[in-house]
Structure formats: structure tokens, C-alpha cells
Amino acid sequence: MAELLAGAGIVDVDVDDAVADEHIRSSAYQRVVSVTASSRSRDRDRAIVATILRDPIDIVSKTAVVALVDKIAMKVTGSAEFRQWSAELLPEIDQLKAEGYREFIRRRIHDWLYHLSIKDGHTPTPAELAKVTDWMQRRLAEHSMSPAVLTLLAESGRTRKTRNIAQNRAGSRDLRTK
């Protein structure tokens, strides 16, 4: 824990308190994740993930790793860059004891790869859309600027909320002028 905090330049967290209290530790991990994601270099990401995943409480480590995946996915230039980055983490993720958490992180990576492929210009199919989580479908409905993606979500989104958001946004004047 001391090395992780020092590597991120975080000096105001008491290491003994963090080791003893999962809430302090979880907060410290979130700060480490923010510093890590904002770095230009991805060289230390795998080692940081490996360290976080050694936490004795799986939900604490899963939450921090998912936050890092989300932050990196929003920062990368495209799906190829994210695919390479995430592939380097998979051996570490496979060390996570709880199978459900391993699967959750893998699905989150899949969701982001799907999102980034759309951002790269891929037009998704209903079959592809069906393979992403409700969370990603809703995120796309809320943020996509593509009329084709919004139409697909309005027609094939899994939840009524997603379909409604996509339908309302597809008809918005802001999108029609793009």
C-alpha cells in the first residue's frame, strides 16, 4: 500500500489506517486510479492493477479496477489502443478470486470495446447490441451523437428507459443539424 501511494504521489493517507480500514483503502485506490489514468504513460498500469487486486476484499479491488478501465476507455484514441491496453491487464484480472467480479470486469472491457468501435465509425447491428450490458446501452443512448446508433437503440434497446432516451435524442434538433 505504501508503495502504491508513493508511486502516485499521494502522501496524505496514513498507510496503517488504509491497511486496517477498507473504506480508507478504497478511497486511496480511487485516488491512485485517478492519478494513474491521468498519466500519459501506461507503463505502470498492469503493476498497479496487480497490486490493487491483491486486496483482501474483492469488491474493493474490483471497484478500483473498474474505475481505471472506465477512465482509460474515456481517454484512449480508439478501440485498437484500448484493446491492446486491456489485453495486458487480463492476466492480472484472471487472478481475482471471485469469478463474478472477473466476469464483471471482462464485460466492462467488452462494453467499452463496443463503444469505442462505434466511435471509430462502426455501425452496430442488433445482434451486436444484444451482447452489451444494459449499462452500455443506456450510456450510448445518453451520449451518442450518431442518428444510426440512436435509431438502433430506440428500436432494439433492451430496456424501455434506453429505448425512450434514444428515441427522444434521435428526434432532437441538435442531432438533425449535425
Highlighted features:
178 residues, mainly alpha, 12 helices, elongated
Q: Give start-end ranges of low-pLDDT stretches.
A: none
Distance between the termini: 48 Å
Structural class: mainly alpha
Beta-strand segment tally: 0
Order of helices and strands: HHHHHHHHHHHH
Arithmetic mean of pLDDT: 94
Compute the CA-based radius of gyration.
18 Å
What is the overall shape?
Answer: elongated
**Helical coverage, percent range:** over 70%
Q: Counting H and I runs of at least 4 residues, what is the number of helices?
A: 12
For the sheet with most strands, the description reads: none
As a percent range, the share of strand residues is under 5%
Describe the structure concisely for a colleague:
With about 180 residues, this protein is mostly helical. The chain is about 75% helix and about 0% strand. It is built from 12 helices and no strands.
Write up what this structure looks like:
- The protein has 12 helices and no strands.
- It has helices at residues 2-7, 15-20, 22-38, 45-52, 58-75, 79-93, 99-119, 126-130, 134-143, 147-156, 160-170, 173-176.
- The chain is mostly helical.
- The model has no long low-confidence stretch (mean pLDDT 94).
- Helices cover 74% and strands 0% of the residues.
